[in-house]
Amino acid sequence: MKKRILFVAASVALLSACKSTPDPEPVETATKAPVTVVPAPQPVTGYEPVPEPAPVIVDNSSSLPVVNAPPPGTLADFHYQSGGEGRVFFAYDQYDLSSEARSSLSRQAQWLQFYPDVVAVIEGNADERGTREYNLALAARRAESVKSFLVSQGVAPSRLTTVSYGKERPIDGRASEAGWQRNRNAHTNLMSGVIG
Description:
The chain is of the alpha+beta class. It has helices spanning 2-18, 75-82, 99-114, 132-152, 177-183; strands spanning 35-36, 57-59, 64-67, 87-89, 119-125, 160-166, 185-192. It has a domain at 75-192: CATH 3.30.1330.60. 35% of the residues lie in helices and 17% in strands.
């Protein structure tokens, strides 16, 4: 009898262990929407702003812009199209334009021609070495070089004025060659006619 009870108990235990388990519920897997990549516009030599909003790179899963060009006609657009912050740089004790400066100024001129209501002041600057009077004269020649080049590219001279700051307004406070190189510049400062 004891054997029979043990046999029945073992059979019940074995059968309950073999009982089938329910199939697992299907799990939904999230699928990520593909990312669409649209190239951002690059500065061009024959500048013609696009009347539509600039193309953007969008992550379709969140619809948030990742990269965007500045709105046309703004100060940011001027900097973007001219390839910098509106500055060209000069060699030590020089006021002639380098090929890099001419390239940047050509793009500035194209932008200024497209926006004929914009008026600018060309600000000449020098590094801290030399006398105040010498640096004022050198910075004035740098500003005039930039103005002359922009006028030669078709910008009306009545839209451009010049001012010399000499060494009075450094953009880099380092008393080193790296700082002096940045301070030897002419800056195209847009005064009016800019959108936004």
